[in-house]
Specification:
By secondary structure, this protein is α/β, with parallel strands linked by helices. The chain has 2 domains: 68 residues, DNA polymerase, domain 1; 236 residues, P-loop containing nucleotide triphosphate hydrolases (Rossmann fold, 3-Layer(aba) Sandwich), CATH 3.40.50.300. It is 45% helix and 21% strand. The N terminus is likely disordered. Bound molecules: guanosine-5'-triphosphate and magnesium ion (MG). Magnesium ion binds next to α8.
Length: 322
């Protein structure tokens, strides 16, 4: 047996309770706070652990280090990354133009953000992604975190009929939660991990519609901006972790505001600033086009050319416009 296999075997045997300073009580506290495996501890911050368990800084530091040491963390080869990317699947928008723009559809393992004015189709895209995710994978479930009370099962039925899949079957596999404020929204996001670990749900898609409305409403005025951004940043990190570690497609919608000091070009900017922009893997600016059409503009993507596509929202789904 090579040295590497020996360490690998040893690594598998380490559990939460083998970490220094973690007894049964602490393990329970950690579990209750959503830290269910070594990876969660390894990527946690000192402050987080101290807050949830009441442990001293020294113990928390030791624990994080031990968790990090016990895992294969850090660098991997380009070949490993390529292998992982082979697990990435693309969820169709049901418009061929839009899919092509996105390199085949909305990617799993990433966050895709759509921003644009009211009525441009952000929520419709969330609905169609849910239907198509569940059509493509009969074992999957979709999670829909609804902050504006705009999730409509009736709309899902229409879209499922349009996609040629049994509407009842689809509705049964969409887990909807209404978020009443930003804390609630963040808590629901954490619960997604419970859904997977305890209820053994195979979550393939997470929709957060809208990502920013509560944050925008709760933090008003210049003085609260930094606080809002920090909280939003934590939320984005959580979503990004969920996407990456479980190969889930995370779709978030975002509103825009008018930028009063912009004289040339489009005067709208997305809410959430750099925090949301940086955490999103793909960013799409959606706007209303001529004769009821919609234009999606890809403005940020790691491996795709920027570009535009035009589609229509129809009863059965999104359809191409030429
Ligand atoms: P806000 O949440 O208000 O910011 O807007 P949004 O970007 O989420 O817009 P949404 O996705 O709710 O789009 C609403 C628009 O979709 C409507 O104004 C209609 O134009 C279109 N739409 C919704 N349902 C249907 C439908 O069944 N048939 C057709 N043809 N269009 C629909
Ligand atoms: Mg909406």
């Amino acid at each position: 047996m090579s040295a590497e296999t020996v360490t690998e075997l040893k690594m598998e045997k380490i559990t939460m309770q083998d970490l220094p300073g973690v007894g049964a009580a602490t393990a329970e506290k950690l579990e209750a706070a959503g830290y269910r495996d070594l990876m969660a501890i390894a990527v946690a911050t000192l402050g987080e652990l101290i807050e949830t368990t009441g442990m001293s800084e020294a113990v928390a530091r030791k624990m994080i280090n031990a968790a990090r040491d016990s895992m294969k963390m850090g660098f991997e080869t380009g070949t490993d990354v390529l292998k992982k990317r082979q697990n990435v699947s693309k969820i169709s928008t049901s418009s061929q133009n839009f899919d092509t723009l996105m390199g085949g559809g909305f990617e799993t393992g990433a966050i895709t953000e759509c921003f644009g004015e009211f009525g441009c189709g952000k929520t419709q895209i969330g609905h169609i992604l849910a239907v198509n995710t569940l059509k493509e994978d009969p074992d999957a479930v979709a999670v829909y975190i609804d902050t504006e009370n705009t999730f409509r099962p009736e709309r899902i039925i229409q879209l499922a009929n349009g996609a040629g899949i049994d509407p009842d079957n689809v509705l049964n596999r969409i887990m909807v939660a209404r978020a009443y404020n930003s804390d609630h929204q963040m808590l629901l996001t954490e619960k997604i991990e419970t859904l997977m670990s305890e209820q053994k749900k195979k979550v393939r898609l997470v929709v957060v519609d809208s990502l920013t409305s509560h944050f925008r409403a709760e933090f008003i005025g210049r003085g609260t901006l930094a606080e809002r951004q920090q909280k939003l940043n934590r939320h984005m990190h959580m979503l990004s972790k969920i996407a990456n570690t479980n190969n889930i497609c995370v779709y978030v919608t975002n509103q825009v505001m008018a930028k009063p000091d912009q004289f040339f070009g489009d005067p709208t900017v997305a809410i959430g600033g750099h925090v949301v922009a940086h955490a999103s893997t793909f960013r799409i600016y959606l706007r209303k086009g001529k004769k009821g059409t919609r234009v999606a503009k890809l403005i940020d993507a790691p491996n795709l050319a920027d570009g535009e596509s035009c589609f229509e929202i129809q009863e059965g789904g999104l359809r191409d416009v030429n």
